[in-house]
Amino acid sequence: MRTDPTVVTAADVAPEPWTGRDDGPGPEHLRWHHAVGLDLAGAASCDAALVGFRSDEGVRRNKGRQGAANGPRALRRALASMALPSPVRVLDSGDVEVADGDLEAGQHRLGRVITSLVDRGRPAVVLGGGHEVAYGSYLGLAGSRAVREGGRLGVLNLDAHFDLREDARPSSGTPFLQMARSEELRGQRLNYWVLGVSQPSNTERLFRTADELGVRYLPDTECGLLGLSRVDAFLDTFLAGCDVVHLSIDLDVLPAAVAPGVSAPAAYGVPMEIVERVCTRVAASGKLAVCDIAELNPDLDVDDRTARAGARLVHRIVTSGGAPSRPA
Prior knowledge:
It is a single chain. By secondary structure, the chain is α/β, with parallel strands linked by helices. It is built from eleven helices and nine strands. Strands 1-3-2-4-9-8-5-6-7 form a nine-stranded parallel beta sheet, with helices on both faces. The radius of gyration is 18 Å and the shape is globular. The chain starts with about 30 loop residues before the first helix and ends in an 8-residue tail after the last helix.
């Protein structure tokens, strides 16, 4: 999947103008809706780019609670009035939409958009959508110049689930096994790490699959504030072993009180303080190429808690980040 680096591939649905609270002119009143542009021609000068993935076909196939296709709209709405600490330039490149049940084609379309954005040297933030979004993000990174030219890819998943399910059809439960199989075809082993895995939410078969694939993981019970040193060491080791990072955030990694609007709310979960710290450190590493936010279901959200939590993580990532490092 190669793209002309001078052209940003258009998504299925054009972006709409952002609106929000306005306290007056000048940088001291800056909010997200002031900083977002819609012109694809300006991609080269942006600090980060957004693309939505309107899909819950993967959730449907995985027998989950549907509604995540409306997640991108809710995340944008939650972001719009957030105050910015300093000026940033963000491109909204619109949405890829899976409206016909053809998830696989939608993932490939998303991949083409991401490749065109990443090849401009700025992080892409994907607003999901079910966690099937992660395989589309991977396709985009695998086709990017940074990975094709030898950059070591690392995938960090903040999630209560491994999502290594082996099913006849791809779903929200299969993206990381799909990545592993795709990497095998490239003669590589997927460098896949998971923070926040919940033992009761993953069968022994899934743990065996993770072990067979060499997955490194930290259980949710070791990701509390008292385990901060373990989390930091886990993250340091991950970042040291890769040049290009794909950060995938399933909002069900957060406790149900913080993120009720997901397909499978967490009975335990990883505290927001830890999740935000991890996101901030990954963004600040300069290695982040793609981040996707998955599983927000506005139909199940209470007081927009989940949308606000996801938006805050996007806010931290964009305001803490830098362009991904180029491989030597």
